[in-house]
Specification:
Blueprint: H1 27-35, H2 40-76, H3 86-103, E1 106-113, H4 124-139, E2 146-149, E3 154-162, H5 166-179, E4 183-185, E5 188-190, E6 195-201, H6 208-238
Antiparallel strand pairs: 1-3, 1-6, 2-3, 4-5
């Protein structure tokens, strides 16, 4: 009787119906391939690349923000004294003028000239004098007033929200007295003659240019009057 041959004889295990193919895609890998998602190693490398790119972009944004802040400050502030420049001063005047029109108040403008203080700019000693004068000026005005460097050795001050023109005169005298006090220049006291003139909106002008012109005229008129009085005094003394 013939022997029945057993599959996988000679002691070997019968072959299974399917073997695991190492190179075949697993269901999870096949799903990622079908959806376009990266495999774990690829995802890690991609995350590292994006993090590095994010750091580079943040650094570039910070540099651009710093440059923009410097450009904005240069556009609206005086580099020498740190005070608002004439462009920002004029913007503040327009805001104050509109407020005055709505509330029937006044806007004061004071022009100040320190004479020889600005002649030697950018001499270091003259720069120190102007900066000290700017500090004195800011410390003697209200927090919502505006002081601006005007010309080489001058300033203009904006006084909004005024109900009485006498407030302008009081501020003018107070500022003039403070700016005329001796300055220290490398241990040597220096006296500066601060001349000033004031004007108000809407009495002395209907716009920025007109009010500034009136204040500037008042300053030169006061300076000329003071010079004539000083000359007359010297003439009397010589007599």
């Amino acid at each position: 009787m013939g022997s029945k041959q057993i599959p996988g004889g000679n002691g070997s295990r019968p072959p299974t119906e399917s073997r695991l193919d190492v190179g075949a895609a697993t269901p999870d890998r096949r799903q990622r391939q079908e959806t376009g998602l990266p495999t774990p190693p690829m995802a890690v490398r991609r995350i590292e690349t994006l993090l590095k790119l994010n750091r580079v972009l943040r650094e570039e944004i910070n540099l651009l923000a710093t440059a923009l802040a410097k450009a904005d400050r240069h556009a609206y502030y005086d580099e020498l004294t740190g005070l608002p420049n004439s462009r920002l001063f004029q913007d503040h005047f327009q805001l104050a003028r509109r407020w005055a029109d709505r509330h029937r108040s006044q806007v004061g403008v004071i022009c100040i000239d320190l004479g020889s203080a600005g002649v030697a700019v950018p001499d270091p000693a003259a720069v120190r004098l102007l900066r000290e004068a700017a500090g004195r000026l800011v410390s003697n005005i209200r927090r919502y007033d505006t002081a601006c460097r005007y010309g080489d050795g001058g300033f203009i001050v904006l006084l909004p929200h005024l109900d009485d023109p006498g407030h302008v005169v009081a501020a003018q005298n107070r500022i003039g007295a403070r700016l005329s006090m001796p300055y220290d220049a490398d241990g040597e006291p220096i006296d500066l003659e601060a001349s000033s003139g004031a004007a108000t909106y809407p009495f002395d002008g209907e716009n920025y240019a007109a009010v500034l012109k009136a204040a500037n005229y008042a300053m030169h008129h006061r300076k000329a009057t003071t010079a004539v009085a000083a000359s007359a005094c010297r003439f009397v003394l010589r007599e």
